[in-house]
Design goal:
194 residues; alpha/beta; five-stranded parallel beta sheet; 7 helices; globular
């Protein structure tokens, strides 16, 4: 049943635990969210001016499951730094339908991957949180003129979406990305927004 385009074996095992042993699942996530919250707190106490809770797996869940099995634990991790007055970012991959719930978890800034336009993201989360994202990392492997156009598109979408935006990739930097390309993107964003 694990076919191309379907759940990976890891996702299937994880969901099997989540559905089949919910008490074990919640105990495990309570422990993990405590560790994550402590780690975020230590980062701030060591001088970090913002923190990010990154969940690369959560996009495999529908909203209903996120609300029941993950939201309380994400909320606990983000709450661990609520009293420190730093911006809290929540990012996940493939989370277009979860963006409002990620904000509900306590995020001041909601990360948006490249699959969802910033306009759609703003419509989903409302005017409250700042949006972060969402340049497709694969675009950075393109010729410079294409990269520049993609950056302009993200900045234009952010301006139309309103409500605050932090330019970022819609996920991590691919290993084949030329650092000179990244430097060019940063310079372009600074020129456009400075």
């Amino acid at each position: 049943y694990l076919v191309e385009g379907g759940p990976s074996r890891d996702h299937a095992r994880t969901k099997s635990l989540m559905y089949g042993e919910p008490a074990v699942w919640h105990a495990l996530l309570e422990k993990l969210s405590g560790i994550a919250g402590s780690f975020l707190r230590q980062q701030v106490l060591a001088g970090a001016s913002a923190v990010q809770l990154f969940d690369s797996w959560v996009g495999a869940l529908p909203s209903r499951d996120y609300r029941e099995y993950v939201l309380p634990h994400s909320r606990a991790a983000l709450a661990a730094v609520a009293d420190l007055g730093v911006p809290r970012i929540h990012f996940g991959v493939g989370t277009g339908e979860l963006l409002p719930l990620m904000h509900e978890a306590g995020a001041d800034i909601v990360g948006v991957d490249w699959r969802v336009s910033l306009l759609d993201a703003r419509e989903r989360v409302g005017p409250g949180p700042v949006l972060q994202g969402n340049l497709d990392p694969v675009a950075l492997l393109s010729p410079p003129a294409v990269v520049e156009e993609c950056v302009r598109d993200v900045l234009a979408d952010a301006a139309r979406a309103g409500g605050g935006h932090i330019f970022n990739l819609g996920h991590g930097v691919l290993p084949a990305t030329d650092p000179v390309t990244l430097t060019g993107v940063v310079s372009q964003v600074h020129r456009a927004t400075g």
